[in-house]
């Protein structure tokens, strides 16, 4: 049965692309304030039984916040499944108005550098290390030096994976499965963007753990911007639009982990209500019209402001 995990993309840096983040997070984006917010959120997740936490080198200080929290709560390796990703570097310098917030570099030098940085913070608590936003076009899945380094990491006991992005996610997932070198895949799937579903089913059938990210479409499937069809269903079920959106993902038989992007305990509680929703053919039919062409979805996502 699929579980809900916690992704730290929106809590480790002052600027991100989630709609409504200003309201959810507040105006104080100092390092110490966000550190405290992250620790409060992680405490709430632990208390709620969340067993998977996902981060990345490009999530600002998210790995640092997580490591400090793990140490202060004296959580042993294995108490939580911790995954992180390499390939993007955070370049925003903790500024809201940065011209570039992150920079992508998917090569062996970046892997060596960022793995050392992740290891320095998370040590032997790291369960899974993934390529961040792999695509066919990037060439990273054909880079022998990268693949060899990942094989060494895998042999040391750390699982290796990839996350995907863009309208061609399915092709990237299928190529990763074909290579037979990965243990997990993290991909975008939500009520608006469903194009990777069949490929993710094939990946799980091949033995990969399937994680789903951006389940609420960067806030577009929450109360901040939910389409009328989703709002109506949520009201009828006496729940929230984000819970319905995440319940749709939990209902997919090929999903292992659905990542919440919550930045507060209240938002996390709202997300976790997804587990109490009984999905049905009626809900599936009513919300099917929300699906968009992948090219449209990713074009709209690229236009979202960092705020």
UniProtKB/TrEMBL annotation:
Q: Matching InterPro entries, A to Z?
A: AKR2_Oxidoreductase, NAD(P)_OxRdtase_dom_sf, NADP_OxRdtase_dom
Q: Which residues form the NADP-dependent oxidoreductase domain?
A: 34-282
Q: List, alphabetically, the Pfam families matched.
A: Aldo_ket_red (PF00248)
Q: What is this protein called?
A: Aldo/keto reductase
State the organism of origin. Answer: Conexibacter stalactiti
């Amino acid at each position: 049965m699929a579980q809900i995990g916690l992704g730290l993309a929106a809590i480790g840096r002052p600027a991100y692309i989630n709609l409504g983040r200003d309201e959810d997070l507040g105006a104080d984006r100092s390092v110490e304030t966000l550190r405290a917010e992250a620790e409060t959120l992680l405490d709430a997740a632990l208390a709620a039984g969340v067993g998977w936490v996902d981060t990345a080198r490009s999530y600002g200080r998210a790995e640092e916040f997580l490591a400090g929290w793990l140490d202060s709560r004296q959580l042993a390796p294995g108490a939580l499944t911790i995954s992180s990703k390499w390939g993007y570097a955070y370049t925003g310098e903790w500024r809201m108005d940065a011209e570039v917030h992150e920079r992508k570099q998917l090569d062996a030098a970046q892997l060596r550098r960022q793995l050392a940085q992740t290891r320095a913070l998370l040590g032997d608590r790291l369960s899974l290390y993934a390529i961040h936003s792999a695509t066919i076009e990037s060439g990273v899945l054909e880079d022998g030096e990268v693949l060899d380094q990942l094989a060494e990491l895998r042999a040391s006991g750390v699982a290796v994976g990839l996350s995907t992005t863009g309208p061609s996610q399915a092709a990237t997932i299928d190529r990763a499965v074909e290579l037979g070198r990965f243990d997990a895949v993290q991909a975008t799937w939500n009520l608006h963007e469903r194009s990777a579903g069949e490929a993710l089913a094939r990946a799980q059938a091949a033995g990969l753990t399937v994680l789903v990210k951006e389940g609420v479409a960067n806030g577009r499937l929450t109360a901040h911007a939910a389409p009328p069809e989703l709002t109506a269903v949520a009201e009828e079920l006496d729940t929230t639009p984000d819970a319905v959106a995440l319940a749709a993902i939990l209902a997919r038989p090929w999903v292992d982990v659905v990542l919440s992007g919550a930045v507060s305990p209240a938002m996390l509680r709202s997300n976790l209500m997804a587990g109490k929703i009984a999905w049905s053919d009626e809900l599936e039919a009513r919300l099917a019209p929300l699906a968009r062409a992948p090219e449209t979805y990713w074009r709209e996502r690229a236009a979202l402001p960092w705020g």
